[in-house]
Amino acid sequence: MSVWDFANANLKNLHVYEPGKPIEEVARELGLDPAAIVKLASNENPLGPSPLAVAAMRQAAGRMHIYPDGASFELATAIAKKQGVEYNNLILGNGSNEIIEFLFHGFTRRGNSSVIASRYSFAVYKLMAELFDVAFIEVPDRDFVHDLGAMRAAIRPDTKLVFVTNPNNPTGTRVSNDELEQFVFSVPKNVVIVLDEAYYEFCQHPPDTLGWIRRGANIVALRTFSKIQGLAGLRIGYGMANADTISVLQRCRQPFNINAMAQAAALAAVGDAEHERRTRELNFAGLERLAKFAKARGIVSVPSHANFMMLKVGDSQRVFVELQKHGVIVRCMSSYGLPEWIRVTIGTPAEMEKFERALIKCL
Prior knowledge:
Blueprint: H1 23-30, E1 38-39, H2 51-60, H3 73-83, E2 90-93, H4 96-107, E3 114-118, H5 124-132, E4 135-139, H6 148-153, E5 159-165, H7 177-184, E6 192-196, H8 209-214, E7 219-224, E8 237-240, H9 243-250, H10 260-270, H11 273-296, E9 308-312, H12 316-325, E10 328-329, E11 331-332, E12 341-345, H13 349-362
Parallel strand pairs: 1-10, 3-4, 3-5, 5-6, 6-7
Antiparallel strand pairs: 2-8, 7-8, 9-12, 11-12
Helix pairs in contact: 2-10, 3-10, 4-5
């Protein structure tokens, strides 16, 4: 007898999420010095964590024998104050990914629900639909941009969640604020619109998401400390919505889901405006540099509003492997159904120079 004879059958063919390859793995496989490898695969902050967060973690390290605040009260209060919402409009997650899981727990039922997402959007939405055994409706995009009209038309009586990633991962594109506003107020009130805004802080003219929530739109806005604050290794994110929706999600949350180290670091990072400013400044310059490099070399690129850019390089799997031999890790887009594309995180000027030289050799 196999364990699959009595395990949940829908898990057997589950598409497992493929993260960007870690530096240590590439170093082991290719016999390279880890210190010489540049990782531009996972949209991490090239400046590292907020310095204030690092100091807070050092101070908190001696208290790790004590359970964390289960309500994350100080952190939640600080985020609410910064965002201009109330405490009961906010929920914290072990990464914003955990809040996506809360949404499936709170609003979908096995075999009796559907969720909607754009074709080239975050892979976790489809993974969660498979895990929870609910129908996943994938809507074709328009030149790598969400087709909100088609997504609205795809809503069925059993649709519970509609995911709009803005800016979108992995394409870096976004929809206009006017188009998004029209969409969120056209969706039936019994459908939750999940605005995944992991890259919100990189938008030069971001949408008024929280204003729309105050006006009654049934939105859950997801944000994260992984990108702009550089705390990806701590796994901490948050969601904002009306109080009733948050009360549903809170009932799906395990006790102590946010560890004490993450709470301490995120609390310090909330107030580190200088680190956010430096990160944005480096990112805008890096996007401009990469776009110019691609144009000069005749490489098609997708204009990005996030901290990464997609480049069309032909056989992306071959280029992905060859780049690793030169000590550069990027993201191959084959798993997203884009076998000619790679996704490149914006790094420091030195990291971008190494990538450019390596890519020229590979092409």
